[in-house]
Write a structure and sequence with these properties.
Immunoglobulin-like; 6-stranded mixed sheet; about 40% strand; alpha+beta
């Protein structure tokens, strides 16, 4: 704010100095023209006497007369130029205000100060015949006013130009524009009496309303259940009073909590006050969504609510009223308000539950793995595809390999039959179980599961039987030997 003020002051000062320099130069030119005119008068009077005495010819006298007329015209032109360059119209006030519907407008008050120009008219009263009627009366006709952006000089006022038929000396006229672009400063352009005048002006705020306007570029947002939405709010006050404003939200379901935060300090706020000379503030409104939907919070159904910035009187009227206000009640609230919108969005979240992540099999055997696919999210998941990443030449049969839809909280069992090749190597192999699915046209994240399978060598049956018989025989022999010894 200070930088803008310094910048504008520098422009005004520079413009004023240039205007003073231009007027001083014109005064010097006027003095020079007056001297030339007086010399031409003296020469003409001398030539007039010389012509009477036949000292010069008629042609020489006519030449002297023409020179006098030429110098007189040049002198009168500079007189008119000097008067014409005086600033007759000044900008008394430029007030920015807001209409109940939200339109921002600028009221420009201009004044005819041509009365101060009468001194020039008295000084050159002998040339009063060359002055126009409006110069003599001080009335200015056909004043055209427009508003421009200081940065790029584009017109930002509607209508683009307003014509004031006339303004009497000492009187004012008011024009009113709708701002096509919200700015803090404008260039007021005046066109009258064949001259253009422009002034860069920092707009005053209309303090009669004591209102705060709220703007948000992110007024409508989609947000997943269990997450939070952030609305950036820009506040502009139309007051110069040191007033405290209350912050509140209405028409938001109670299951959705919220907080206001200062845009710079990030501190949590329930009230705010503008500092001296401060007219804008940045706030953040955070809304926290619950984990699950209910009768008030339905997925894909917009929730419309209002953020309010109110004075004490308005705040006290509605602070004890039920959270839900009608559109008519909100319209009658005198204060800053903005309509915001939340669209709850569910998320799909798949969890794979595998009964056992480690298995042992013998060469030639197959394996069946039970997998429970559960939707832990808040939205129906469609077209769930179960896949496996298998070791080389291993095969997997999945039943079912496609789950068409799965509602939140529901689960479905899937059987994955694993078949190693006949010549499988002995050792530990890994099988990775994956899913692909979508919910609301978004991919659903799933944590993959890895199952380890240990393959053991197959032992020959005949050799095993002979070994068992041998062991049984040894055991029987030991028992019989023990019995004989005990009988002795």
């Amino acid at each position: 704010m200070k930088k803008i003020t310094i910048f504008l002051f520098t422009i005004f000062l520079f413009t004023g100095i240039k205007a003073q320099e231009g007027q001083a130069t014109l005064m010097l030119d006027l003095k020079k023209a007056k001297a030339s005119y007086q010399i031409a008068i003296q020469k003409f009077e001398n030539d007039k006497k010389l012509l009477t005495n036949d000292a010069i010819s008629q042609d020489e006298f006519n030449k002297s007369k023409n020179e006098l007329l030429s110098e007189e015209v040049d002198y009168q032109k500079l007189i008119l130029k000097l008067i014409g360059q005086q600033t007759y119209i000044i900008v008394e006030k430029a007030i920015k205000y807001q209409m109940p519907g939200g339109d921002r407008r600028v009221k420009i008050v201009i004044k005819n100060t041509m009365a101060g120009n009468q001194d020039f008219l008295k000084e050159f009263k002998e040339y009063s015949d060359i002055f126009t009627p409006d110069m003599k009366t001080g009335k200015v006709y056909n004043v055209f006013v427009s508003l421009k952006n200081i940065e790029n000089k584009t017109i930002i006022g509607s209508p683009y130009e307003i014509r004031i038929p006339s303004i009497n000396v000492g009187e004012t006229a008011t024009v009113d524009f709708r701002l096509l672009k919200d700015v803090e400063s404008v260039q007021v352009c005046l066109n009258y009496n064949g001259q253009n005048d422009s002034k860069n002006i920092y707009l005053e705020k209309d303090s009669s309303t004591n209102m705060v306007d709220i703007i948000s570029n992110s007024f409508a947002q989609e947000i997943d259940l269990g997450k939070s939405a952030s609305f950036d709010l820009s506040l502009e006050r139309f007051s110069n009073s040191n007033i405290t404003y209350h912050l509140m939200v209405v028409n938001l379901p109670r299951q959705i909590t919220y907080n206001f935060f200062d845009g710079e300090t990030k501190s949590r706020l329930s009230q705010l006050r503008f500092s001296q000379g401060e007219n804008t503030r940045k706030l953040v409104l955070k809304a926290y969504m619950p984990e699950r939907e209910d009768k008030d919070i339905v997925i894909d159904k917009a929730i419309k609510f209002y953020a309010l910035v109110l004075l004490d009187d308005e705040y006290n009227k509605i602070k004890n009223i039920d959270n839900v206000l009608s559109e008519k009640q909100i319209k009658n609230i005198h204060g800053g308000k903005i309509k915001l919108e939340l669209i709850p969005k569910g998320i799909g979240h798949i969890i794979l539950r595998v009964s056992d992540l480690y298995h042992e099999i013998t060469v030639g055997d197959s394996l069946a793995i039970k997998v429970n696919v559960k939707n832990e999210g808040t939205r129906i998941i469609n077209n769930i595809i179960i896949k496996t990443e298998n070791p080389l030449n291993w095969k997997a049969v999945i039943q079912p390999d496609l789950i068409q839809s799965l509602k939140p909280g529901k689960e479905k069992e899937v059987i994955i039959s694993i078949m190693p090749p006949k010549d499988v190597d002995v050792g530990v192999q890994e099988i990775k179980i994956k899913t692909e699915a979508q919910a609301n046209n978004r991919n659903v994240y799933t944590e993959d599961k890895t199952v380890q399978v240990k393959v053991k060598a197959k032992v020959p049956i005949v050799g095993t039987m002979l070994l068992i018989l041998l062991l049984v025989g040894i055991v029987i022999g030991i028992v019989m030997f023990g019995i004989k010894i005990s009988k002795r």
